[in-house]
């Protein structure tokens, strides 16, 4: 027998505006944090380039290499390579852009930093520079903040191929045309056949146009964004790129997200022994100001308070929860108006509705471990990480049948339950009535202890890992690099 020929490792530079465990505002960070570990077994060495926010710079270990960039849009900057939290990190140390604490995108008053266009142009430009200078085989650019990297590569004549991943088409990074002159790109880049988008500079458009391959984070969303309804103005372009656009489902880092070891829980548990979960429910009720009641089905919403996530539908469907003896806890922040409505519901239903406005990783994990069910009535959802966390932690998710939610949650209708396959509840169309009906179905199953135990076991047995998807990414990279 011939020994299998060892494949030489490929070196991929991924570039993004956030990455777990350094800085996180949503699912993008989870994915960026997990990909290096997921791709390593496939012979792909991933280096992660992040803006040098204070949290990133503080996490860097011994510096392995650094390179000065003499002038990055008006001031000197440095690329600093070091290991941090077990990952190979390339930090863009550009204090004039990134030495700002707090949100990576928002100034203290809650509005975008006025120089976001240049901050993330700097990220794309430095990524292209690093890819060429440091011998990477491919670049993996995530979302609009990294969308200029493929353009800079193209116009530098680089032979390094680029993959662009869309995590959410709703955020496109569009800026006034007068920005273009500052970007250092040739005039020909500013065309419809380029990064021009209805007279503006489009960063996500740039990624979609100039990258060699485009992925989004679920097959369902890859189909949806080719339609006028969900293409957000880019469906024509996405259709035009044909088979170069595909969907690869996000996974979870199942070591990081493990109820048997998670230090944020008050009681750890596993699929084989889920009983200790009950103590986490008690703790969630206490921290969310809910009445201590082990028998009340506890529904939890965790996420951005935005139209996309359908938190308004959750509040409108409250009678379906409260009228059936249930409780609701909400963890999130976002639109001021929606935050106000969450406060209002909490104040008017003391002990039965609880909320925490803010971003709290530890509380989120406790909630996945203590909730009876997680609510995700998103109007659209590229993939969704929340339902994967919920499955892993045994809180069957109740989800709108859209995008990645439809791809990952199997509705526990009678047939599915009888066949032992249901993992949560799906509903469509996305409305308050249909959400309410799904909640009522869930409560009925909850009251039938045996059905619920089976559902919870199915949820926890779901494969939410990166196993399959990492193979797909690896094949994609090898195909791109091979030609
Ligand atoms: P998004 O569209 O915001 O990226 P996802 O479902 O893909 O939504 O990912 C959200 C991630 O952020 C999940 O890991 C979720 O647990 C986490 N998350 C969302 N809101 C909060 C919050 N307020 N506090 C802590 N974690 C949160």
Key structural traits:
2 domains, 9-stranded mixed beta sheet, Rossmann fold, 6-stranded parallel beta sheet, alpha/beta, disordered N terminus, 18 strands, 19 helices
Annotation, overall tally of beta strands: 18
Describe the strand arrangement of the main beta sheet, using strand numbers: 3-4-5-2-1-6-7-11-12
Our estimate of the beta-strand percent is: 15-25%
- CATH level-two architecture of the largest domain: 3-Layer(aba) Sandwich
In DSSP terms (H or I, runs of 4 or more residues), the helix count works out at 19
Q: What multimeric state do the chains show?
A: single chain
List the bound ligands. Answer: adenosine-5'-diphosphate
Q: What's the pLDDT, averaged over the residues?
A: 96
Q: What is the overall silhouette?
A: globular
């Amino acid at each position: 027998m011939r020994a299998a020929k060892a494949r030489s490792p490929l070196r991929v530079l991924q570039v993004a505006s956030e990455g777990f465990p350094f800085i996180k505002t949503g699912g993008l960070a989870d994915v960026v944090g997990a990909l290096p570990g997921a791709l390593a077994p496939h012979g792909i060495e991933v280096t992660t380039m992040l803006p040098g926010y204070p949290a990133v710079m503080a996490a860097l270990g011994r510096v392995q290499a650094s390179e000065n960039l003499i002038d990055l849009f008006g001031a000197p900057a440095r690329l600093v390579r070091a290991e941090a939290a077990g990952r190979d990190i390339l930090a863009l140390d550009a204090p004039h852009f990134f030495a700002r604490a707090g949100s990576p995108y928002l100034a203290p008053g809650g509005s975008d930093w006025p120089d976001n266009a240049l901050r993330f142009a700097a990220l794309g430009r430095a990524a292209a520079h690093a890819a060429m200078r440091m011998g990477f085989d491919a670049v993996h650019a995530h979302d609009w903040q990294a969308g200029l990297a493929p353009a800079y590569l193209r116009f530098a004549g680089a032979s390094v191929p680029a993959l662009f991943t869309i995590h959410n088409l709703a955020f496109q990074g569009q800026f006034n045309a007068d920005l273009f002159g500052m970007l250092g790109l040739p005039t020909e880049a500013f065309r419809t056949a380029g990064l021009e988008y209805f007279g503006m500079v489009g960063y996500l458009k740039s990624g979609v146009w100039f990258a060699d391959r485009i992925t989004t984070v679920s097959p369902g969303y890859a189909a949806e964004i080719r339609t006028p309804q969900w293409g957000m103005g880019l469906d024509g372009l996405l259709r035009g790129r044909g088979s170069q656009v595909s969907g690869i489902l996000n996974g979870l880092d199942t070591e990081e997200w493990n109820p048997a070891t998670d230090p944020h829980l008050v009681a750890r548990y596993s699929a084989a022994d889920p009983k200790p979960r009950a103590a986490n429910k008690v703790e969630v009720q206490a921290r969310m100001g809910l009445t201590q009641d082990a028998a009340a089905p506890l529904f939890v919403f965790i996420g951005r308070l935005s139209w996309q996530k359908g938190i308004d539908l959750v509040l409108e469907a409250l009678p379906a929860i409260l009228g059936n003896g249930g409780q609701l806890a909400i963890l999130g922040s976002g639109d001021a108006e929606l935050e106000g409505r969450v406060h209002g519901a909490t104040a008017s239903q003391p002990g039965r509705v609880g909320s925490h406005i803010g971003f709290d990783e530890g509380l989120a994990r406790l909630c996945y471990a203590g909730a009876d069910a997680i609510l995700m009535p998103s109007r659209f959802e590229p993939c969704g990480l929340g339902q994967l966390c919920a499955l892993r932690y045994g809180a069957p998710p109740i989800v709108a049948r859209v995008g990645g939610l439809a791809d990952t949650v199997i509705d526990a209708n009678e047939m599915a339950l009888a066949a032992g396959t249901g993992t949560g509840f799906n509903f469509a169309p996305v409305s308050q009535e249909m959400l309410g009906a799904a909640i009522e179905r869930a409560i009925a199953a909850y009251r039938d202890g045996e059905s619920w135990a089976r559902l919870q076991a199915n949820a926890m047995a779901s494969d939410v890992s990166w196993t399959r998807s990492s193979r797909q990414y690896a094949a994609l990279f090898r195909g791109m690099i091979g030609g």
